[in-house]
Description:
Helix content: 10-25%
Shape: globular
Number of domains: 1
Radius of gyration: 14 Å
Number of strands: 7
Low-confidence stretches: none
CATH superfamily: Ribonuclease Z/Hydroxyacylglutathione hydrolase-like
Mean pLDDT: 79
CATH topology: Metallo-beta-lactamase, Chain A
Structural class: alpha/beta
Order of helices and strands: EHEHEEEEEH
CATH class: Alpha Beta
Strand content: 15-25%
Strand order of the largest sheet: 4-5-6-7
Amino acid sequence: MTTIEEVGGVNAQYLSHLDEAGPMLERVADRFGSRLHAPAAAMDSIGRHANVDVPVEAQRHVDDNGVDAIPTTGHSYCSTCYFVNGVGGDTAIETVDDARWRQCIAEALATVPS
C-alpha cells in the first residue's frame, strides 16, 4: 500500500465547512508542514483547532494552487467548495453530502463567471 509520504505528502489542506474543524487539522499540518486554507469568516472558530494559513475570502476566485474556491453558504456557515483540475485533465469538486446542495453548486458553477 502506498503511503501519503510516498506520493509527496500533503502541502495544502482545504476546509470546506466548520463541521470539518478539529484537532486532526493541526496533526496533519505538523506531520506534513501543510498550509490550511479555510473560510476567512470562520477563522476564530477554526483557530481553536489549527492555524489558518490562507484565509479564503467569500467571493469566487482561483488561488495560487489553481484551486477554484466557490462560496456555497447554506450547508453550514461559511461553506466553501473547491473545484480542482487534476492530473490528466480529470476534475474534482469537494462538495457537501446533500443532493440539494450539489444542485446549488452546479447552479453556482453555471452562473458565476470564473
